[in-house]
Amino acid sequence: MLPKTKIIASTLSFRLSLRVIAALAVLLMVALLIMFYYSRKAVREEARQKAEQTLEMTVQRIDNILLDIEQATGNVYWKVTAHINEPDMLRKYARMLVEENEHITACTVALEPGFYDGAKQDFYAFYVRKDSTHVVARKLPSKKPYHKQSWYVHAMETGLPSWTDALTVSTPGFEPIISFCLPLYQGERKVGVLATDVALSLLSKIVQEVKATPNSFSTLLGKDGSVIVFPDSTVLSMDAIPLAKEEHNVLLEETVQAMVAGETGHKQVSLEGVDYYAFYKPFVCAPVLGRSPMDLGWSVCVALPEDDILSSDRQLNYTVLLIAVIGLLLMLLLCRWFIHHQLLPLRMLSRSAQRIAEGHYDESIPISPHQDEVGRLQNHFKQMQQSLAIRMEEMNHLSETLQERGEVLQATYKQAQAASNMKTNFLYNMSNQMVSPVKTIFDDVMMLSSNYDVMTDEEATQLTDEVELNGNRITAMLNQLIVDSQIDKAIEQ
Fold first, then answer.
1. In degrees to the nearest 10, what's the CA dihedral of 224, 229, 231, 236?
2. Tens-digit pLDDT profile for residues 419-471
3. What are the φ and ψ backbone dihedral angles of 46, each rounded to 5 degrees?
4. H and E: helices and strands count for the chain
5. What strands lie across the sheet with 217-221, from one edge to the other?
6. Burial class of residue 275 in the structure, from the number of CB atoms within 10 Å of its CB (0-12 exposed, 13-18 middle, 19+ buried)
7. Which of 5, 137, 201, 248 is spaced 20 to 30 Å from 65 by Cα?
């Protein structure tokens, strides 16, 4: 058996402490599991609420940018309309619009073909672009028929303000954009379109500044599925549905399709090996006084990494587990100390029992002032020790008495044995002394019986006297034996 195992096996306080801690650990683990379950549920609910708040903030942030651009464009719109026949003034107002608004990257004024010169094959259009250091204005080349492009056609057909989905500009140095288009009127006739552009990278940068968690991100899809806002600028203006299919991710594809369909909800998706909770809803422009109602058909999404959502919960769990382990260790030490202190009388009784087993019956055991089981056991043990000491004292006294009586008996036995030996010797001597007279009597009687006829009277008388003499000797010896026997009997009594 290992030393540690021996210590555990031989120490009652340690074993009791371990059992108490084991029971507490089981109860604590059950409580922690229940707490972890409900804390995980609460964290997910908190993450859902935070995602919804972030989603709403993202919508508001995007809408604020759009509204800022709409108002800035609307402020210039009336001046452009008033000077529709003055190209220089149009460029001036367009430049002013780009310079004074940080969100606008370019402004385009496109008029109907032949608006100035009456030539139906040509149209007048120019754009003002914000470069890295200054604003430049250029006339759009006539080889690009802007009057046939979607943003121009849609504005001219509806005659209403509108936002385009993501557009890819083929001109080198131009980023993907979205455009706010306002149809230009001359009287009741639509004569062109005023379009302000916002770079998708700029819009994405502004939107991504709003984060629910450190690694979360937002995305905005157009009604045609084009990517308007995304952290990776390389996918801006690209179609999100083919991109999702390329990932071979069914949940991601379903999420994109649900966003394009204008649904509200959330799904768990995986991107590049990272699990996200994606919360999405349709993008709705806030109703503002003087703002034209627009149904853009866009959908906004906020994706929160599962690790970000559960990181605080995991940290809390680790902290709780650490506190639980430290608490159990402290509880073990306290239980060990408390039980060790409570079992001190038992250890004292154990040592006393060992001393008593070794023959020290006068072992001193104090009276316990406690009335619990251990205290009563100590007091009863003291009573037992006292009773055992009295019994052992009586047994010692009895043993001494028996020993004294044994010595007396042994001495008496020796005396009796000596007397017996004396009797034996006496009888032996008596027997030896009686043999000769008896033999003489026998010989004389045999001689008388065999020679009586031929024997004289004197010879017969002589033989008779010898028989009588020997008979008297034998009688005297027997009388002496009887007297000695009576004396011995009297001594024994």
1. 50
2. 777 777 776 777 777 777 777 777 777 777 777 677 777 777 777 777 778 77
3. -65, -40
4. 11, 11
5. 227-229, 217-221, 299-305, 274-282, 265-271
6. middle
7. 137
CA distance 147 to 109: 11
CA neighbours closer than 13 Å in the CB half-sphere of residue 202: 17
Comparing CA positions, the residue from 60, 51, 58 lying closest to residue 286 is 60
Q: Report the pLDDT averaged over residues 111-128.
A: 65
- CA of 394: how far to CAs of 46, 85, 116, 366, 386, in Å? 84, 141, 144, 23, 12
222 closest CA partner among 179, 187, 192: 179
Question: What pLDDT is stored for residue 450 in this prediction?
Answer: 75
Distance CA 220, CA 197 (A): 17
| pLDDT for res 174 | 64
pLDDT range class, residue 191, cuts 50, 70, 90: confident
DSSP state of 237: T
Q: What amino acid occupies position 281?
A: K
Digit-coded pLDDT (tens) for 326-354 = 877 887 777 777 777 766 776 776 777 77
Distance CA 151, CA 348 (A): 99
**pTM score, whole prediction:** 0.59
In 140-208, beta strands by DSSP E: 162-163, 177-186, 189-199
Provide the 10 A C-beta neighbour count for residue 128.
26
> Within a 13 Å sphere around the CA of 252, how many CA atoms are in the beta-carbon half?
18
User: Could you give the CA distance from residue 374 to residue 367 in angstroms, rounded to a whole number?
Assistant: 11
Task: State yes or no: pLDDT of 42 exceeds 80.
Answer: no
pLDDT of residue 173: 57
